[in-house]
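Quick one from the shared queue. A colleague (R.T.) flagged 2Fe-2S iron-sulfur cluster binding domain-containing protein as missing a structural entry in our internal table.

Convert sequence to C-alpha cells.
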Amino acid sequence: MSLSTSSVIALHINGEDHELIVDHRTSLLDVLREHLGLTGTKKGCDHGQCGACTVLTNGRRTLSCLRLAVAAEGCDITTIEGLADGERLHPVQQAFLDFDGYQCGYCTPGQICSAVAVLDEQAAGWPSAVTRDVRPEAGQPILNADEIRERMSGNLCRCGAYASIVDAIARAARQDGENPRAEAGEAG
C-alpha cells in the first residue's frame, strides 16, 4: 500500500483562487514564493522567530513558514501584494513610506502585514500584555507607543528601524480619524 505525499489544494490568495499540487510538507511560505511567484513575503529564519514571513490568514497574522499549505486550504490569505487597492497603497503601506519605516526593507512586508492585523486587533478591543485596563467595558485599548511595540514584538528588524515603524503604525491608526484611541505624537 502506497501513501501519496502530495495533494491537490485550492488556495484563495489576494482575491484569486489557485489550484496546486503540493507535497504535504510544503509550507505556505514556499507555495507563495516558489509556486505562485509572490516573493514579497520573505523567508528570514524559517523557524517562526523573525516575522519576515507574516501574512494574513482570515485577517489574522500567520507565520507562513510554520503553516503547512494544506492547512491553509479554505482560508482567505492576504500577502503584501494583496494589500494595495490597485495603485492606491494600503494606509499602513503609505505610512511606512512617509515615516521611513524601513531601511534594507527585507522585514518590511512582514512588518506591514503584522501592523494591519495589529490595527484590527486593537479596534476589536483585544488587549495586549501591556494594556492597562483589560476589562471588556474599557473598550479599545489606547494604541500608544508601548502598545504598538508589544503588539509588534514578533517582528524583528535587523536594521533597527523600530522608532520609525512605531511612528508609521501610529500614523496609520489615526489617519482616517476613525480610531479615537490612537495617540498622536512621536513614538519616543
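The longest strand covers residues 6-13.
The domain at 6-80 is CATH 3.10.20.30 (Ubiquitin-like (UB roll)).
Added to the table.
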